[in-house]
Amino acid sequence: MVRIRLRPDLAIVLVCVALYVGSAVQVRTPRGETALSFAAASIAAPAVALGNAAGTAWEDFRLGQRDLRATLRELGRVREESAELRRTNQLLGAEVAELRQGSRLLAAYPSLADRAVLARVVARDLLRTHSLRLDRGSADGIRPDAAVLAESGLLGRVDRVLDHSARVQLLTHPAAAAAAAIAGIQSEGLLLGGDQPRVTGLPPYTKVPPDTLVVSTGSEGIYPPGMLFGSAMEARNEGLFTVVPVQLAAHPTEVTVVLVLTAAGGGVP
């Protein structure tokens, strides 16, 4: 049998501790609790307070995470709405600009308004095919060879028509041609297209002042007479004819709405 032997000094300490604990159990505070329970509560209070604080902080953190996710979702929704509003505003701005240009077009050619159709330019290929694509076609009364006008002058003619679209051959197209007259010059010439349109067919050594207006005569049966092509540049002689380069008045890059005649030729506007 194993016997536990304690050193006398340790035995005295243990006995004192036991006596203290026993006394603490018997002693009561004014609130009715024992000194031992009061001491235990005092010792445990900081740990309990720390645990409560940690629990509160964790709950606040979880609530903060939920609030942050909700805020981020709301921010994403607001950004999408803002982007949609910007797109809508841009479309409305473009439509307003087109309406203004269309209104100016009708005001510029009042005598043509009753036999013309306003069309919007939806595509352009100025380098390869020298053409514009419009959002109106045969269903709107547009026919091949219909003259196409911008606010500042003639652009070209319709060379292809579908039910709801049409293609415009610009005056810069290499195959473009139109009967033309230069103000102050009796002889009629032929406006030829290309990167640098020019009037040819005039008698040799015809003197043409720079910036003289070049207009249509209607002899080819496409363009109404008296419509502006552009202005003359410095003339030169080539063989038996005087050739006059022309600075076109209408710029396809700046046009968003055009006026398309529903009948070829026509009277003076």
What can be said about this structure in brief?
The protein is α+β, with helices and mostly antiparallel strands and 269 residues long.
Describe the structure.
With 269 residues, the protein is α+β, with helices and mostly antiparallel strands. The chain folds into two domains: 35-108; 112-261, Rod shape-determining protein MreC, domain 1 (Thrombin, subunit H, Beta Barrel), CATH 2.40.10. It has helices spanning 8-26, 35-108, and strands spanning 116-125, 131-134, 147-150, 153-161, 166-170, 177-182, 188-192, 198-202, 213-216, 228-232, 236-238, 241-248, 257-261. It has a six-stranded antiparallel barrel with strand order 1-2-5-4-3-13. It has a six-stranded antiparallel barrel with strand order 6-7-8-12-10-9. The longest helix has 74 residues, at 35-108. It is rod-shaped. It starts with 7 loop residues before the first helix and ends in an 8-residue tail after the last strand.
Number of extended strands: 13
Unreliable spans: none
**Order of strands across the main sheet:** 1-2-5-4-3-13
What would you say the CATH architecture of the largest domain is?
Beta Barrel
Which short descriptors sum up this protein?
269 residues, alpha+beta, Thrombin, subunit H, 6-stranded antiparallel β-barrel, 2 helices, rod-shaped
What are the SSEs and their pairings?
Elements lengths: L7 H19 L8 H74 L7 E10 L5 E4 L12 E4 L2 E9 L4 E5 L6 E6 L5 E5 L5 E5 L10 E4 L11 E5 L3 E3 L2 E8 L8 E5 L8
Antiparallel strand pairs: 1-2, 1-13, 2-5, 3-4, 3-13, 4-5, 6-7, 6-9, 7-8, 8-12, 9-10, 10-12, 11-12
